[in-house]
Every structure is written in structure tokens, then in C-alpha cells.
Fold this protein.
Amino acid sequence: MDNRPVIAVPMGDPAGIGPEILLRAAMSERVASCARVLAVGDARVLARARTFPHMPQTELHPVAGPREGVWRAGTLDVLDLELLAPEDCVLGQVSAACGRAAYEAIAASIRLVMAGEADAVATTPINKESLHAAGVPHIGHTEIFAALTGAREPLTIFELRGLLVFFLTRHISLREACAAVTKERIVACCRQSFAVMEQLGLKNPSMAIAGLNPHCGEHGLFGDEEGRAVVPAVEELRAAGYNVVGPIGADSVYFQALEGKYSSVLSLYHDQGHIATKTVDFYRTISITGGMPILRTSVDHGTAFDIAGQGVATGVSLEEAILVAAKYAPSFSRRA
């Protein structure tokens, strides 16, 4: 009996590097040992990607669903949705047709996992302009997944070498992010983060909250957010039974966590966590969307229109996204 989880991988924007990194990752021995990869999209687009320079030899096996998968070395099982012909997709260009095809592949992947036919989704990059041109009413992956799974508060998480990084704020200005550091917001975010760690199957997780100011403000000498917001939030959370500490200086907390001192870190703003993780290992910093009834991981890079079709795009990040999905899938709780 094959106990490897089935990971649905939508092809991404056909005009970008998604199809080629999918082929590379699926042919990886590391991936094959841990997961059964089901490509979702258009077999013709993937067949074109096979012709790019330096691509691995791959046999494509179109299927109507995971039950028809052969899951053998050198073969990629493809749920062929016949979305668009390659001649209708110009590499490196924004296109409504490509945006629509990317969206339909994602939607089909979500349906597979919601129906219990696959265990998780690992996404390849899409182009926001192409989605908009196609009339897709969602700006990106997270919004698509939230809409199609009914998730009310999807949460973006980074995973690197087993460390989970959560974000108090993301796509707002730094000035707005500083103003958003409140006790109430920290408490709510930490509670949700611990629920997600439970969902992922972590036992007795811990969290360190990064400081906002240099040296955590030196007791108010330059910034009072730590004393005014972080410390009271930690006290309330610890009283409620959460294993939370902080604030810990942002220049050391990520190192300490990677050394195993904490299961997770709460980053108080977007770049704080992004810089810390991506500097350690850009390609193996993997995004997880928590708080949903299904498990989704993702590469954390874009469509790279400038190199699409050249056969130089690395599949390392997608490999890692599939491996992370396979790691958490067996213990993942469908309770959002």
C-alpha cells in the first residue's frame, strides 16, 4: 500500500516558470520518496515545458483523477483540464487566457483536497495582472483559497528548517504596522497562531514575540510599544496557558528559534520575518496558509517572466513546498 500523501500542484501561470519548476520538482528523488505529485492544469502546457533547455526527461500521464495515477519514477501524473493551447500563451507576457487557466488549475486542486481525493495543495507562482485581466475577483492565492474553502481568517506562515514564523501585520506601510502593534491585536494573533500549530499537529508548541524597536526599546528609551503592548499581551497569554515569551530582540530571536529554543516566532511586521528567513535560505523559506480546512503550501517567489522558457529556473523552492506539505499532511486537522 502506498502511504505517501497525494499533493496536488497546480501549474501556475503558463506564461511563467510554474510549468517548468513543476516538472523539475516532480522528478526529484527527494520528492518522489515522500509524496505522490499530481500536476493540475494542461498537459499541452507541460509538454511544451519539457522542450525547454536542460529539462528532465519526463513522461506525462494524463488522468481523470488521483485514482488513475501510476506514481512511478520518471512519470508525472497530470489532471488534464485542457485549459489552453500553448500557442495561446506567450511566455513572459501578461495574458487574460493565462490568468484564467492559472485560476482554474488552482480551483480544481482545491476541489480535490476538499473532496478528500488529495491531501494538500502546493502552489506554483501566479501573476496578479493576468488574474485581473481574466476577471478573477481575487488578487492572489490567499484570497482565492479563502473564497473557495470558506476560510474566514487565513493566516500566512513561513516554514524554514522546522521553524514557523507568523506575522502580526503584512501588506501595510511600516508606519501603519507600528501603529498596529497593540495588546489586543497581539493576543488575537497569538491565539490564532497556536490554533494553527495545533492544526498542523505540533505538540506543546512555544512562541517568541520579536521586539519592534532596537533592543526592544531599552525600557522605553526609544519606543514604548514593547512595554505598552507586547509585555501585557504576553502576560495575558501566559495566564491563559499559552507558552509565549517576549519581547525578544529581533536581531537574535530568529537565530535562537532556528537553534531550537522556540517552535515559532511572531514577527511584528512584514519585512522583519521575511528578511530573517530569506537571508538564511531564500529557496527553502516556504509559505503555509493556515486557518483553512485544507493544507496549502507555496513557493515564495514569483512567476519570473524574464527567464520563463530558458530552462534555468530552479525547482528547489517547489520541491521544498511539496516536502513541507507531505510532512504536515498526515497530522493535519481539517478543523480551521
